[in-house]
Amino acid sequence: MSFTLLAIQPEILSTPAENLEQLGTLLERYREREADIVALPEMFVCPYQTDNFPRFAEPEGGPTWQALSAYARQYGIYLAAGTVPELGADGKVYNTAYVFDRDGNQIAKHRKIHLFDIQLKEGTWFRESDTVSAGNQITVFNTEFGTMGVCVCYDIRFPELFRRMVDAGAKLVFVPASFNMKTGPSHWDLCYRSRAVDNQIYVIGCAPARNPELGYVSYSHSIAADPWGEIAELGDRPGVLEVHPDFDYVDKIRQQLPLLQHRRKDLYEVTEPPQQNS
Description:
- By secondary structure, the protein is an alpha/beta fold.
- It has 7 helices and 15 strands.
- It has a single domain, classed as Nitrilase/N-carbamoyl-D-aminoacid amidohydrolase.
- The longest helix has 17 residues.
- The radius of gyration is 18 Å and the shape is globular.
- The termini are far apart.
């Protein structure tokens, strides 16, 4: 059974309040498409800059969380709510993805595991760890359509993470992201197609629209890759990507090309590291 998924690629405004108001406008605009699931970008509530993360961080259950829950309930959708800066009970800030069901209940929470600390030779650099702490959980959740997973942006570059989600039953993984103008043209499509083909799943990448005036410029190009590696993709302008994932198709691909069955787990199965004694 297929379902309707909308990945919204919005312009990112200055504050959470502005971006949440814009989200309400967009959900109303796209209501007639009768979406089952709506996906949002990484850090869709504020410009993607490290100093913004602690500035706008809120605890789980805070005003942004409540607004997202209310939108899911109002429109009767599953809301894969991109990511927001979360203020943890430990006082640390996390890049956190929440997922809500049709009644507005939180059914998943993923804190970005791999932090984007990079330094390219031509000068592109970013240090997410300056203000954000890393999560430590692999996240899957159940829906009426089947099991899905979620991770965040730089997480997509670590195949082991995807295989663990697939082993837990995921047939679709959301990856809200904001690649930059150096890595995006070279690696964006490649990463999403690779994870989809390697694991025979759908991989949904939702990004913000491009704004050259921001300190960090998103490559944008929100994307959906299917289990055969075919993609649907937006450009760099604000818009919405509509796709119709079908988990029966996932099963058919896995039957015809049984990659997951042919794994040599005796040689290369990922295992948990041993516990260290204190």
